[in-house]
Amino acid sequence: MQEKIIILDFGSQTTQLIGRRVRELNMYCEIVPYNKFPHSDPSVIGVILSGSPFSVYDEKAFKLSLDGIRGRYPILGICYGAQLMAHLEGGTVEPANSREYGRALLTEVNESNPLLKDVAVGSQVWMSHGDTITSLPDNFKIIASTAQVPVAAYQAKGEKLWGVQFHPEVFHSTCGMQILRNFVVDICGGKQDWSAASFIESTVAELKQQLGNDRVVLGLSGGVDSSVAAVLLNKAIGKNLTCIFVDHGMLRRNEFTDVLRDYECLGLNVIGVDASAKFFSELAGVTDPEKKRKIIGKGFIEVFDEEAHKISDVKWLGQGTIYPDCIESLSITGTTIKSHHNVGGLPEKMNLKLCEPLRLLFKDEVRAVGRELGMPEHLITRHPFPGPGLAVRILGDITPEKVHILQEADHIFIQGLRDWGLYDKVWQAGVILLPVQSVGVMGDERTYERAVALRAVTSTDAMTADWAHLPYDFMAEVSNKIINTVRGVNRVTYDISSKPPATIEWE
Prior knowledge:
This protein is α/β, with parallel strands linked by helices. Helix content is 32%, strand content 25%. The protein contains 14 helices and 18 strands. The strands form three sheets. Strands 2-1-3-4-9-8-7-5-6 form a nine-stranded mixed sheet, with helices on both faces. The chain has a five-stranded parallel sheet with strand order 12-11-10-13-14, sandwiched between helices. Strands 15, 16, 17 and 18 form a four-stranded mixed sheet that branches. α5 links the parallel β10 (215-220) and β11. α4 crosses α11 (363-372). The longest helix has 20 residues, at 289-308. It starts with a strand and ends in a 13-residue tail after the last strand.
């Protein structure tokens, strides 16, 4: 039985980072909504309460009873989680004089406390809160302070219950991993036995038991997620897996044939379907990005359904859904950020049961699993690519001409990253075709042609991202090559927006 840490999500933007940091300690964890604690799960060994966008006094704030949790498991509250536990016990949480955001230094540390073992005075932490704990319940004690925050960390006396006002999960808290290690390993007793190899072993065994001799169909996209899911399923059920790769006409240059060749080398049973004419017809004149996604999603379902019905006795739909897919499709507050191509639609239409072997993994963990499965490195290190493809990188309506222009420009950019040894240093990159034209001069003639934007970001899990600081000489070379060789483009720009507040894709 795989022991686990449960992270109760109160809606913080950094909840996923808590999960990533715990996984980096080779400890399995699961993120669940704040009100969905798995009380009957015997594998739980500790609980972390996340931050939240709310104040504990807000009417809409997520409230939690610790009955059945407190005293049964060690608990660590982070930011809102810490404020909520103090508030529930009669402590005082008040608005800070000014929003406390950014770096702070620990001025007092109780180094004998197990949560703060090897955490020194002067350690940097990251604050991000509008409220602060101004007084603790009688049975709580302060174990760390900063110059502005007297209650930077506390413990309930005689209990395995702690709270920290700062965010140990973010990179800027230099002692953060040590604090999480102290909690997860020393306090909770985690064995640190979570790894790609252990995941494959347990998942293959689960898939064999779950699927038996049933047949499974899986929609391949050419990306690392669906590819790893396919190889994992193939390892578990072999010939009972059939993969379908649909070309909606908005893939990268030569991607349909290149990807099919890769999949043949992996020994997968793959059906390739060129449905580009159907998608171009249905997308004609459509400019709204969400409508584009829904048209492509619906069209994919129709094509996939038609092909799947040619296979007899299929009972399961396999998908390469991973954690960020689930989070971005529906947040804890119920607000849709964007519809995702892996979530919803197909199982209901096809009356199939859903099999998502990667849905609890982050992207870097998926890549680790791929390597452990012996997949070729060029497949594992491929940048993420949106399910709707270039349709969401063309702002405005979609035409075959625009797709061709973008494919050529994108190929130059991506190949340039490879040639300069920059591809593996970037999380994701691509070109966006802008809905504007600008004046230019080529030869002795005035031109009025399209502009494109290059987008490249660095990230670890796509939940946050920074724009990649690429060399000027590289940018100059790519810009010149695009303008000189891609007909219809006379201007190249570079997107220097980070996520948040922007997203990685423009649509």
